Amino acid sequence: MAAVSLRDVSVSYGQRRAVDGITLQVRPGERVALVGPSGAGKSTLLGLCNGIVVPSSGEVQVLGSDPARASGRALKRLRRRIGTVHQQLHLIGPLRVVHNVNAGQLGRWGPWRALRSLIRPLQVDQARDALARMGIAGHLHSRTDRLSGGEQQRVALARVLVQDPELVLADEPVSSLDPARAEEVMRLLCGLLEESPRRRTLVVSLHDFDLAVRHCDRVVGLRHGRVVLDLPADEVDERARERLYELDPDR
User: Where are the alpha helices (DSSP H) in 141-200?
Assistant: First the structure.
């Protein structure tokens, strides 16, 4: 069974098609990079995978379920199995790092346990271990907004590590970083996939074509909401890159 399967999927916003008839499969354990110009449909495709975006037509299957047709309870269960790394990180700055890491537990905890953990953190050893794997164990009780940008990136990754998802979706996780830090975050992100007995699946959108080739198994190029490139990373050449990013004379 594919981790992600899209069959002739389109997403329309008024007259504009953000995704236009995409058929795509991602196998369990694959690291797939989505690349392409701004507005190509990368974020929309990731939104389809976690049920935030509903397709206008076509069929979406994620870990054996259709997010668009799942009941509220079933969708919540599915999202427990999906970890998301957002471009803006979605951390709560005034909270201690341990609370932001423990947000990865919220899919398993009920509301009372989550509230109790805000007063006195639960599963502290697990949070500390996740931070240690990210190289920042000493910041367990630091205020999150007092950390550097790179340290906050590591907190967001530790949160996913605690969640222990089967599928990781990352939407432009390095777009605001300098090249050295972007390389480091991609190394940590891909290393996170192997921190579990089962190899996690990664679908990540990137603007940096070279980063995609270096760190992923497969490169999927999107343009105007369509797949125009789908190759193993070691088969991607300069001509493929040029075709993906060439300007359209009629647009």
Answer: 149-163, 179-192
Q: pLDDT digits over 31-51, tens only?
A: 999 999 888 999 999 999 999
Paired tokens of 240 = 């493929």
As for how many domains the chain has, the answer is 2
**Domain residue limits at 236:** 29-53+63-81+167-251
- How many angstroms separate the CA atoms of 91 and 155, rounded? 8
Strand order of the β-sheet with 57-62 is: 16-26, 4-13, 57-62
Q: Are 200 and 166 in contact (CB under 8 A)?
A: yes
* Rounded CA separation 114/107 (Å): 10
**pTM, 2 dp:** 0.89
Burial class (CB in 10 A: 0-12, 13-18, 19+), 16: exposed
Last-in-domain residue among 164, 191, 225: 164
The dihedrals phi and psi of 57, each to the nearest 5 degrees, come to: -160, 165
Report CA torsion sign: 191, 206, 156, 110.
negative
SS3 207: coil
Residues 74-100: pLDDT tens digits? 988 999 999 998 878 889 999 999 999
- What are the structure tokens assigned to 109, written together? 């905890």
Query: Residue 48's closest CA among 7, 95, 99?
Result: 7
75 and 188 both lie in a single domain: yes
Boundary (domain end) residue, out of 164, 190, 207: 164
